[in-house]
Design a protein that fits this description.
35% of the residues lie in helices and 13% in strands. With 351 residues, it is an alpha+beta fold. It folds into two domains: 232 residues, no CATH class; 49 residues, no CATH class. Strand 5 and strand 6 form a beta hairpin. Helix 3 packs antiparallel against helix 4, helix 3 packs parallel to helix 8 and helix 5 packs antiparallel against helix 8. It comes from Novosphingobium pituita. Belongs to the phage portal family. PBSX subfamily. This is Phage portal protein.
């Protein structure tokens, strides 16, 4: 046998010839500890980044959003900190509005909530017969689509129920996106997985208590029991299930040995999923994405020092978050050519 054939036979199989999820030996020492890796490495930036290179596709009438608006709407109430941070911003912006005859506080609050949840806000002009502006109505961003023609928008509440708005009567406010300029995307997308994980942890713990897994154990009996004692224990355990469980069970074994009856818990092993750690970590991620101080959301501090002065935190939050959001909605004045959006000047805190 030639050296070339011998070397080819001793080579390891190439990664392309391995079946998926194969067990690959990392070191074959024949004696001692062997390490294994399961499957081939999966890159983080693979199929997910393909969406960043696609434009918003259209159906010859309107553009479809780059992300599911239905999914964003459902995730709004996934985490209490996620929804509470958005509601806090909405309420602070609505309270700072100086209503005008054309724009009510209710319509403005709806626009703000759409902008914070979906990244887009739409307002529709309502005109009189002379073409003069009467008022501005809030158009739900979840069902509003941007048309192919400039200034054209569509109302799409369901299949075959679409209606075209009158051209030039709908105005869009969008959060900027780095991949396209047709629709806006919300700022909290980087923390959306944390909000969903927070919801999953809560739902898992609820199911854990509802299905009675917290009472699971193995009754291991090796002692000597009289006739009928085992059947009596079995019947007593059956009666402890269902409503009114957590009952105490008395067992008397006169000739039994020490450790003849043992209870081996089996459900606690699966229940140790770091519930509090998951909740706290995901909460911090969501608050970091929304940039909301924890004391403004009613979070109880874990340390004795607390979170600091809530008044100073409110002032800083208003200056860094609410004031920039006010400038976003002032764009409507430029689009309409008149001051329909006005905000009251916030009193300065006393020195």
């Amino acid at each position: 046998m030639s050296k070339r054939k011998r070397a080819r036979r001793m080579d390891r199989p190439s990664p392309a010839s391995r079946p998926p999820n194969a067990m690959i030996v990392a070191n074959d020492t024949r004696a001692g500890v062997s390490a294994f890796t399961f499957g081939d490495p999966e890159p983080v930036n693979s199929r997910a980044t393909m969406l960043d290179m696609l434009e918003c596709w259209h159906n010859q009438r309107w553009y479809e959003p780059p992300i599911s608006l239905e999914g964003l709407s459902r995730s709004f109430r996934a985490s209490p900190h996620h929804s509470s941070a958005i509601i806090l911003k909405r309420n602070m912006l609505a309270s700072s509005l100086d209503p005008t005859p054309q724009l009510s506080r209710r319509a403005f609050a709806g626009m703000v909530q759409d902008y914070l949840v979906l990244g887009n806000a739409y307002v529709q002009e309502v005109r009189n017969r002379l073409g003069q502006l009467l008022r501005l109505d809030h158009a739900l961003a979840k069902f509003t689509r941007r048309g192919l023609e400039p200034g054209q928008f569509w109302w799409v509440p369901g299949f075959r129920n679409e209606v075209a708005f009158e051209p030039g009567t709908v105005h869009q406010i969008m959060a900027p996106d780095i991949n396209q300029e047709i629709y806006g995307l919300p700022e909290y997308l980087s923390a959306l997985q944390s909000a969903l994980l927070n919801e999953n942890a809560t739902l898992f713990r609820r199911r854990y208590f509802e299905n009675g897994s917290h009472a699971g154990y193995i009754l291991y009996a090796t002692g000597a029991f009289a006739d009928g004692d085992v059947d009596a224990m079995r019947e007593a355990l059956k009666r402890s299930k269902g409503p009114g469980n957590f009952r105490n069970l008395f067992v008397h074994a006169p000739d039994g040995k020490e450790s003849g009856i043992r209870i081996l818990p089996i459900a606690e092993v699966g229940a140790k999923d770091e519930f509090l750690g998951i909740k706290n970590t995901t909460r911090d991620d969501v608050l970091a994405a929304h940039r909301v101080p924890p004391q403004l959301l009613g979070i109880v501090p874990a340390n004795a020092g607390g979170f600091g002065d809530v008044t100073k935190a409110t002032d800083a939050f208003f200056e860094l978050e609410i004031a920039p959001l006010q400038t976003v909605f002032l764009e409507l004045n430029e689009a309409l050519g008149r001051n329909v959006v006005r905000f009251r000047e916030r009193p300065r805190p006393a020195a």
